[in-house]
Design goal:
disordered C terminus, binds zinc ion, elongated, alpha+beta, 6 helices
Length: 309
């Protein structure tokens, strides 16, 4: 599943290759790609035709193209926005990829959507082997966020992100701290991988109840989450080759240097103990038994496996 850094790489690719171009035609194939757009794929194609992509934006793991009738930059000069923008939300799902390709090439395996542009140049194709991803249209609210994801909290890289407010809300959570970190309505963009990494860096077991941690510790965990995602972004390629571009970061852009996630059986880089894997919220969690001792009482919600206290 793409996490925030991967989605940001995709966003940058879209900003480079698609923003500023007018959609000439959108084509959708298969029953699933537009299933989140209830009026259906024909309606979605109608809404896209003739619109100008004025921005590629992201909040957490959510990605969208901002659409307007004109590319006039009046609003970017600080003037009032002449008309509310609309958005094409792109859900990458488990395996969704956006490819910038030469125009009018043959369909790619697992291609479900294709956007052609009025300039006749490269096309944008949505390829998704497992078809959990898709595209949907949304209005955009006054805050610039698509209304269909208005409940998603700012991610740690946004100006709207308020770390102290998130800490205050964490401090009253009855749930396990990892569960809270994964709650996209509290802070968005932290997925399983980066939650484990942030907790390892902070030396906190994910099943500790959030309210039992001090505010400085909670703040530290959030800072670590931001740092580890930022480091991943620094490693991720931001340059894209010309014609055939995979703007999804899944295929090797990220040589993630991970300390906990996926490191079961390896030595903890800090203390040398063996990294363990546990089940939590139906997913694997990785931690160091010495740096991140389990809470005494197994009160962590979502726990599905027994263990010593
Ligand atoms: Zn350790």
């Amino acid at each position: 599943v793409p996490e925030l850094p991967e989605v940001e790489v995709v966003r940058r690719g879209l900003a480079e290759h698609v923003v500023g171009r007018r959609v000439e035609m959108a084509e959708f194939s298969g029953p699933r790609v537009a299933r989140r757009h209830l009026p259906g794929p024909v309606d979605l194609a109608d809404r896209l035709r003739g619109r100008v992509v004025t921005a590629a934006r992201r909040r957490g793991k959510y990605l969208w193209l901002e659409l307007r009738d004109q590319a006039e930059p009046a609003w970017s000069a600080g003037a009032a926005d002449p008309a509310p923008a609309e958005a094409l939300l792109v859900h990458l799902g488990m395996s969704g990829q956006l490819l910038v390709t030469a125009p009018d090439g043959p369909p790619i395996r697992h291609e479900h959507a294709r956007l052609s542009f009025a300039d006749g140049g490269t096309q944008l194709r949505f390829v998704d082997q497992r078809t959990f991803g898709g595209m949907a249209w949304s209005e955009v609210g006054p805050d610039g966020i698509p209304t269909t994801i208005a409940h998603i909290a700012p991610d740690p890289f946004e100006p709207a992100y308020d770390a102290s407010s998130v800490v205050r809300r964490l401090k009253v959570r009855e749930s396990a701290v990892k569960r809270a970190l994964l709650d996209q309505t509290l802070v968005s963009g932290i997925g399983n991988i980066y939650a484990d990494e942030a907790l390892w860096r902070a030396g906190v077991h994910g099943e500790r109840l959030a309210r039992t941690l001090t505010k400085p510790t909670l703040a530290r965990i959030l800072d670590h989450a931001r740092e580890v995602m930022s480091a991943a972004l620094d490693q991720g390629g931001t340059s894209f080759d010309a014609l055939y571009v995979n703007v999804n970061g899944q295929s090797g852009y990220f040589d993630r240097s991970l300390n906990a996630y996926g490191q079961e059986g390896r030595e903890c880089a800090r203390c040398g103990a063996t990294i363990r894997r546990e089940q939590f919220m139906n997913r694997s969690s990785f931690s160091c038994p010495r740096c991140q001792p389990r809470p005494r009482s197994a009160a962590g919600s979502g726990r599905t496996q027994g263990g010593r206290g």
